[in-house]
Task: structure prediction
Amino acid sequence: MRSLILVLLTSFLVSYIPTRLSEHPSKVKAVDTVVKKEPLPKIDQTKLLYRKMNLEFVLQYDAFEQAIQGYKTLRPRRDQILTVIDFTLPSTEKRMVVLDMKNEKVLYHTIVSHGRNSGDKYARAFSNRHGSYQSSLGFYETEGTYQGGNGYSLVLNGLEKGINDQAKARAVVMHGADYCSESFIKSTGRLGRSYGCPALPREINKPVINTIKNGTLLYIYADNPEYMASTKIIHAIPDRTLLAQHDIGTDTLSSLN
Result:
């Protein structure tokens, strides 16, 4: 008898529970799943442009990044062209790059000489002094051309006071030179040196000058602590989103001298 009663009670309970639950669906609370969204990482626009222009084997990133900072800060009159010289490289390597910023491509990649008192194979010492025969670092605005003792030449206006603003008075210009050639490298193990001018191979001197003349920006880089301590154009880039910041600075080429 007891067994019969237990069986009946068990059957009753089993049939009752789902019935009661189904009668009050509003009392059954759904469990909300909260998915925490991670913030999207910032896109490094400068690095993106660097890769888009395929510069990995043409120009080291630090030189490009600093040149871009100056380019965005100074806003040159002819902003389609940007030229960078990397003096951390030996004179036997191609260390000058002319960039087409509008079409995002390399126009020229060439060897370039440094001042004779800046160093032998490497440029390690820099000066703004008259008679130093050393190269000067920093940002320059290109000006007009003329026929001088070194042939077709380009006037360079140094934009940084105390760093390169004596370039024009020192007759530091861009010109062609026989000592800037692959044959000179083969015979001596390095390029010949100038009085401070960035001298180019004669065969490409004129087309390069005609490309960058009249208001483009030139940056001479050397990873030099003294320059970094003195320049007012290059600053720390904490988030490396330079190209996205169109209001990075209000300086212009004309206001720095």
Summary: The chain is about 25% helix and 20% strand. Residues 36 and 227 are 46 Å apart (CA to CA). Strands lie at 81-86, 96-100, 105-110, 138-148, 151-158, 173-176, 199-200, 217-221. Helices lie at 2-23, 45-52, 61-74, 182-188, 202-212, 225-230.
